[in-house]
Design a protein that fits this description.
The protein has 18 helices and 21 strands. The protein is α+β, with helices and mostly antiparallel strands and 523 residues long. It has three domains: 2-139, DNA ligase, ATP-dependent, N-terminal domain (DNA ligase i, domain 1, Orthogonal Bundle), CATH 1.10.3260.10; 203-394, D-amino Acid Aminotransferase, Chain A, domain 1 (2-Layer Sandwich); 398-521, OB fold (Dihydrolipoamide Acetyltransferase, E2P) (Beta Barrel), CATH 2.40.50. Helix 1 (2-12) packs antiparallel against helix 2. It is globular and about 75 Å long.
Length: 523
């Protein structure tokens, strides 16, 4: 457990991708089975422990100290696991600390009635970093800046494996992945994924900077939709939907799975239907993500469908080495035989020259379109980004001047800075929140913003500070969606801080109505 705790601590202190890869790889190479397998399950979100909830942890610590002191400490620290780890009373010499695999085994077998005593017993055997790791593990709050994809890349690099092969066998295995590590260390064969609906890594596009250098006649041009890129996999009657990072999201889309009526691997954009029959907003789609069960009302309000881009497998035939033109022909034929309301074809666009192409990009016919995709007709389907094959040309971002309202401390190396910023726009003389951003600024700008927040705080709510409504931030964003969670009635898509406008009076910031109109106009 101590080694896993050290890994979490190190991961939380760095934001560098290569550093995270190195830390995970070193841990996996040095840690025996099955602990490293359970660590991978925790990092990739595959470990589910139902008996421990955050409220239980709060009750345990409040029974051991003044509850008011705990709440004040929690307000200051802002993280439950860190607060409990620091305040839990040391038990002195006693039972040995559990290994990671022993901790997981105990937590998996718990009933909710048994959980308080067992969790308290384990916390009493651990030091501060171990307690932090245990609470994070038990409550499922393991957020250390590591995606499931990054963890699998780290495993592949640590053992000299092809990450594509790791991805292909991953979903046919279960924690603690003993066959995977036997293969990785040369002690066993590659796990057999035959007949399994396994994930294949996506082919990705590079940003297009000079469209004038593209020979349009050699490319397939299509819209870039604002949804979720998915891979629909059917094999042996099993149906799966995978997101771009390789996560299985099938549970959230039971209405879509029956439409996948034959063995195939299909690449497309996951979208939802709007009430009028068009494409719904990303906000509507987002309501269906990360759910284990979906209500009938939500299924009816936001029915899911896939706009098909590419065909990787037809039956058991691997098409990835074929040119895109041939794959597209087969895709058209396949989609024609599938449920039209659930699977449709990404339309092919025509553009005589770069100026016409730019006109399409700047004025798409649907607000759910982010820009254009250009794909060489002779391109094979290759995992990752390969220069010169696929390009994406997004619309110019929208911008609005907003007023900083609240700031929250960050995580990892940003834990000492106020780095998560909520901002608003005017409506009838009142500022209403329209979004939250935590990137787009340099380290120097972050330090400046942190100082400004501390000097202009007017109220505190745990890790959040309310500030004087004086600082204007220029916010870049891709689109706006209706939002019932914001008093403004709207929320920005992919907001980021483009500029700090310390020179601009707050009363001259934009209005909610202006932002909504700007998004509607698409400019």
């Amino acid at each position: 457990m101590e080694r896993f705790a050290s890994l979490l601590d190190a991961l939380g202190r760095t934001s560098q991708r290569n550093a995270k890869l190195g830390l995970i790889g070193a841990y996996l190479a040095a840690t025996p089975d099955p602990c490293r397998g359970w660590a991978m399950a925790a990092l990739t979100g595959e470990l589910r422990l139902a008996a421990v909830r955050p409220q239980l942890v709060r009750k345990l610590i409040e029974a051991r100290m003044d509850p008011t002191l705990f709440r004040l400490s929690y307000d200051y620290v802002g993280d439950l696991a860190e607060t409990v780890a620091l305040l839990w009373p040391d038990s002195g010499p006693g039972a040995a600390a559990p290994s990671l695999s022993e901790a997981v085994a105990r937590l998996q077998s718990l009933s909710r009635a048994e959980a308080p005593a067992v969790l308290a017993g384990m916390l009493g055997t651990l030091d501060v970093s171990g307690r932090f790791a245990l609470v994070k593990l038990a409550t499922g709050a393991l957020r250390v800046g590591v995606s499931a994809r990054l963890a699998r890349v780290a495993l592949a690099e640590a053992f000299g494996l092809d990450v594509g092969e790791v991805e292909e066998v991953w979903h046919g295995l279960s924690p603690p992945y003993l066959p995977l590590f036997r293969w990785a260390e040369g002690r066993g064969p590659r796990p057999d994924a035959a007949g399994q609906p396994v994930f294949r890594p996506f082919m990705l596009a590079h940003p297009l900077e000079d469209p004038g250098r593209i020979a349009l006649a050699d490319h397939l041009v299509e819209w870039k939709w604002d949804g979720i890129r998915v891979m629909a996999v059917v094999s042996g009657g099993e149906r799966r939907l995978y997101s771009r990072d390789g996560n299985d999201i099938s549970e959230a889309f039971p209405d879509l799975l029956p439409a996948l009526a034959q063995d195939m691997v299909l690449d497309g954009e996951l979208l939802v239907r709007a009430p009028g029959g068009g494409v719904g907003s990303f906000h509507q789609l987002q309501q269906r993500l990360n759910r284990r069960t979906v209500s009938q009302a939500l299924l009816e309000a936001a029915p899911a469908f896939i706009r098909a881009y590419d065909l990787l497998f037809e039956g058991q035939t691997d098409l990835r080495a074929l040119p895109l033109a041939e794959r597209r022909h087969r895709l058209e034929r396949m989609v024609a035989g599938l449920a039209p309301g659930r699977i449709d074809l990404s339309p092919r666009l025509e553009a005589a020259d770069a100026s016409r192409l730019d006109a399409l990009r700047r004025a798409p016919p649907d607000p759910g379109i982010e820009g254009l995709m250009l794909k060489r007709l002779d391109s094979p389907y290759v995992a990752g980004r390969v220069t010169g094959l696929w390009w994406k040309w997004k619309k110019d971002p929208l911008t609005a001047d907003c007023v900083l309202m609240y700031a929250q401390r960050g995580h990892g190396r940003r834990s000492s800075f106020y780095s998560d910023f909520t901002f608003g726009a005017w409506a009838d003389g009142t500022l209403l929140p329209v979004g939250k951003a935590y990137f787009g600024f340099t380290d120097a700008e972050l330090a400046w913003l942190d100082r400004w927040v501390r000097a202009h705080t007017i109220a505190r709510f745990g890790p959040v500070r309310e500030v004087e409504k004086r600082l204007v931030l220029e916010i870049a964003f891709d689109s706006v969606a209706p939002s019932g969670r914001h008093k403004s009635g709207l929320a920005m898509r992919f907001p980021r801080i483009a500029r700090i406008r310390a020179d601009k009076p707050a009363e001259e910031a934009d209005t909610v109505a202006a932002i909504a109109a700007l998004a509607q106009a698409g400019r």
